């Protein structure tokens, strides 16, 4: 079930089996991430799992992201649509906003420590959940 963000805080403690945050944490600050980790820790059952996917490492560039997207699009048969979307993004306010605000990026050890500090055991998955193999996925469980 998908619910509005404001409804998440009202959920019962230890009521969720799984939380997936895919391609999210690059758009929020470290403080916002810590607050979400604390909330998610409260909401997860003792045997629940948190999946943090598509985490951008500090060394990954926009060129790497574009290359991964175009490769994925070519394999999936939507190369023209992806290229058109990239061109539209290039000329959109999003590009300027992204350049101004930036994206949150984390080294593997940094995100593992941050998640562990909030009461989880955490490990990096060998594969990313998303299409970009240069990005990272982590699986966390409440301690």
Summarize the helices and strands and which ones pair or pack:
Elements: H1 5-8, E1 16-22, H2 30-43, E2 44-55, H3 62-76, H4 79-90, H5 93-101, H6 108-117, E3 120-124, E4 136-142
Describe this structure in words.
- By secondary structure, the chain is α+β, with helices and mostly antiparallel strands.
- It has six helices and four strands, in the order H-E-H-E-H-H-H-H-E-E.
- The chain has helices spanning 5-8, 30-43, 62-76, 79-90, 93-101, 108-117; strands at 16-22, 44-55, 120-124, 136-142.
- The protein has a four-stranded mixed β-sheet with strand order 1-2-4-3.
- Strand 1 (16-22), helix 2 and strand 2 (44-55) form a beta-alpha-beta unit.
- Helix 3 (62-76) runs antiparallel to helix 4 (79-90).
- The longest helix has 15 residues, at 62-76.
- It is globular and about 45 Å long.
- The two termini are 25 Å apart.
- The model has no long low-confidence stretch (mean pLDDT 92).
Keywords summarizing the entry:
143 residues; four-stranded mixed beta sheet; 4 strands; globular
